[in-house]
Design goal:
The complex is a heterodimer of chains A (126) and B (230).
Chain A (H helix, E strand, L loop, with lengths): L25 E9 L6 H7 L5 H10 L18 H13 E9 L6 E5 L2 E2 L9
Antiparallel strand pairs in A: 1-2, 2-3, 3-4
Chain B lengths: L1 H25 L6 H8 L6 E5 L14 E6 L2 H7 L6 E4 L14 E5 L8 H13 L12 E7 L17 E8 L10 E8 L5 H8 L2 E9 L2 E8 L4
Parallel strand pairs in B: 1-2, 1-4, 2-3, 4-5
Antiparallel strand pairs in B: 5-9, 6-7, 8-9
Helix pairs in contact in B: 1-3
The chains are: A alpha+beta (126), B alpha/beta (230).
């Protein structure tokens, strides 16, 4: 599971959707792997406006990455190749292979196995 | 009732796809023209969903957008995840792990016809619409593209047409390799065949507004957007 994915998923439990505590989900016991992908600066530039920066900072911090800047790179900063390369590496090339995603509202743990997060709910949460 | 339908789909849809994932995937490689067009016309940087992505064949169309694909079958999600730059997770269409009113688009291709009651088919579409960005003054909302198998397909290999039963079990035959000594295996999947106008009705009941709809190669399709402030 790519790090960017965490920015676009939340708890599958209906009641949690309205709670701010359900986003982002929190990584526990994450095992990381780097997967080399083609660097597409345009892709990073285009997708970045849709990334929730505060959530990404939380995620990066939980995964042990050095702190991201407090504000999202905008304007000229998006022409700096190093900035885009760093984001490419974090968002797309860093994979969570094993671990859990935990909801801060209901506490449910979603398991990540062989790089795939499983959001199916047990019957008592449906 | 809902519980029964859930168990029924578990046995007659989900377990079958787990079993046939590899063979199914090897026979599904080309996106359908309307799906291809819908995905190609998206603004670069759009974020969307592919609900019931199967082997992820539709993830190959556009690499300038980011798609979180999901499938109920872990075996299919494992195949779909290989398509870059996108993502794939395991999820249930009735309980999607996505925020409200966020996404620019979603596709749901050949999926809702596996839901075994009218209420669940509508609920499935409503759940997808829930995740889609609402339109506001001057700003269009996000769009979804939904496909479902048509009852009216008298020229197809199956030959069904108006007046035939809409709810049926469709066989999937996995041929044994010649000389392997194994036997062919037949699996049955549940389908609800949509009749003319039914997909549009389901979308409206789910809180959507149909923008465009039509028929393509044995399937009904519709593009829809969530009602304002629904």
């Amino acid at each position: 599971m790519k790090v960017i994915t965490a920015n676009f998923v939340t708890c599958a439990v209906k009641e949690c959707k309205t709670s701010a505590a359900s986003f982002p989900l929190h990584f526990h016991d994450a095992e990381l792997e780097q997967q080399e992908l083609d660097f597409q600066p345009e892709f990073i530039r285009n997708v970045l406006p849709r990334v929730d920066w505060d959530s990404l900072r939380i995620t990066a911090n939980e995964l042990g990455f050095p702190s991201l800047p407090e504000t999202k790179p905008e304007g000229d900063a998006l022409n700096e190749e190093q900035t885009l390369k760093d984001l490419h590496r974090l968002l797309l090339e860093t994979q969570v292979i094993e671990g859990k995603l935990v909801c801060g509202n209901c506490g449910h743990q979603y398991v990540i196995k062989e790089g795939i997060a499983n959001f199916l709910l047990p019957s008592h949460l449906v | 009732m809902a519980d029964q339908a859930e168990v029924y789909e578990e046995q007659n849809v989900h377990e079958v796809y787990q079993q046939i994932a590899g063979h199914f995937s090897a026979t599904r490689y080309k996106p359908w023209p309307i799906v291809e067009k819908f995905l190609q016309e998206l603004t670069p940087g759009s974020i969307g969903l592919d609900v019931g992505c199967g082997n992820g064949k539709n993830l190959r169309v556009n690499r300038d957008v980011f798609i979180v694909a999901s499938d109920r079958s872990e075996n299919l999600a494992k195949i779909a995840v290989q398509h870059q730059p996108h993502a794939a997770v395991v999820a249930d269409i009735l309980h999607l792990p996505h925020r409200d009113a966020f996404f620019d688009f979603a596709v749901c291709i050949a999926v809702v016809h596996h839901m075994s009651t009218p209420a669940r088919r509508i609920e499935a579409i409503a759940e997808i619409l829930r995740t889609i960005k609402r339109g506001s003054d001057g700003q269009p909302g996000g769009r979804i593209l939904v496909y479902a198998w048509a009852l009216e397909q008298k020229n197809s290999r199956r030959g069904w047409d108006k007046g035939d039963s809409q709810d049926l079990m469709v066989p999937w035959v996995r041929r044994a390799k010649p000389g392997s000594g194994e036997e062919d295996q037949t699996f049955h999947r549940y389908y609800h065949l949509y009749e003319s106008g039914e997909l549009e009705r389901d979308i409206e009941q789910a809180g959507g507004v149909v923008v465009e709809s039509g028929y393509e190669k044995d399937n009904w399709w519709a593009i829809a957007t969530p009602k304002h402030d629904s």
